[in-house]
TrEMBL record:
It comes from the Bacteria. It holds the Pfam family DUF6452. The lineage of its organism: Bacteria, Pseudomonadati, Bacteroidota, Flavobacteriia, Flavobacteriales. InterPro entries: DUF6452. This is Uncharacterized protein.
Length: 152
């Protein structure tokens, strides 16, 4: 009996000394969501054939290569206050220059920090296939709703 009680006490000590697994279940840094609309009828969602999307003079975002979309989610640079994208549709490229402020928020020990973006603005855009745009919100704290409407 003494042997069992020692074993039970040892098992309890081991179980109580274990730490909880840190698994991040929180949302991370949100993406910028663009939704595409018909220029002639601005309430009508209009898909766009995207040849490619790339950060200006950098990597190609392969998820959006040679596909049709009515909306896209693209990351903003968390280390800078500006990000520029080249979006090519039907072999015509437009460049959009975004500026914003960053706000780092501590989520938890397992998730670390996430970055929300504030004061989102479009500094300039080329107007090849993009006819107009509307910024719906200047605060990017989720990626479930469209932040910017693009009319083409």
């Amino acid at each position: 009996m003494k042997k069992y009680s020692t074993l039970i006490i040892l098992a309890l000590i081991l179980m109580l000394s274990c730490e909880k697994d840190d698994i991040c279940l929180e949302n991370t840094t949100p993406y910028l969501m663009l939704k595409f609309y018909n220029f002639e009828n601005d309430t009508l969602v209009k898909t766009i054939d995207i040849d490619s999307i790339r950060v200006l003079n950098k990597e190609l975002i392969s998820d959006y290569t040679a596909k049709s979309f009515d909306s896209i989610s693209i990351p903003l640079d968390i280390n800078r206050y500006k990000t520029s994208y080249q979006i090519t549709s039907k072999k015509t490229t437009d460049t959009i220059y975004f500026s914003y402020d960053r706000k780092d928020i501590f989520v938890s020990r397992s998730c670390g920090y996430k970055t929300n973006f504030e004061n989102l603005a479009i500094d300039s855009t080329t107007n090849n296939w993009i006819k107009a745009y509307n910024i719906n919100t200047t605060i990017i704290d989720n990626d479930t709703t469209a932040h910017i409407n693009i009319y083409h």
